[in-house]
Amino acid sequence: MHTSRDRLRRVINVAVALVGIALTAPLMALVAIVIKLDSRGPVIYEQPRVGLDRRGSLARPRQRSRRHSDVGGRVFTIYKFRTMTTTPHGEGERWASKDDRRVTRVGRFLRATRIDELPQLLNVLKSDMNIVGPRPEQPTIFAELRREVEGYHERQKVLPGITGWAQVSLGYDETIEDVKKKVELDLEYIGRRSATEDLAIMAKTMPVMISRRVWM
Fold first, then answer.
1. What are the pLDDT digits (tens) for 13-27?
2. Residue 46 — φ and ψ, nearest 5°?
3. Of the candidates 121, 134, 136, which has an alpha carbon nearest to the alpha carbon of residue 182?
4. How far from 213 is each of 48, 205, 208, 210, CA to CA, in Å?
């Protein structure tokens, strides 16, 4: 039902990503240098996230039953500027908090301004994400939230995004109730998504970045 509109949205998202990369390239180069000077570890942090569920409601029950390892959608690698100290492998996926001690001095600023999200413009070009859409979650955390939050898996009907209606409307998740509120807004967005809506949310994202009101 949304096929033609989704194609237009995709074109706009890719165009914005290309312009965004061109405009922020000097900033991203500077951020990379500062991260290296501030703490040990890689500049870019890679992490698996659950993306679009291309099966949607068209998958037959028999097909769904064969997917014993169903994680809710296609898992992809998300790119972010590293904002935390490096941790040993095998520590497991953890839900970051606003006052997380793992966050570096530079990382705290990058998170508050959302500059750490800029490398995800590459994810947009790779068709992993759009600029606007529900935020993708880590597989293990996604599995927990799908059990605890009604309708959580419905977010996977569209490509995840760098920003979204829930992100510009609410703050950082600290409780399950916070997640539930964001899911409500995500589903609201999915129901009315359009190219105009995406452009409006992109415009609303800039003031949030400048005022540093929202943590991601």
1. 999 999 999 999 999
2. -110, 140
3. 134
4. 26, 10, 6, 8
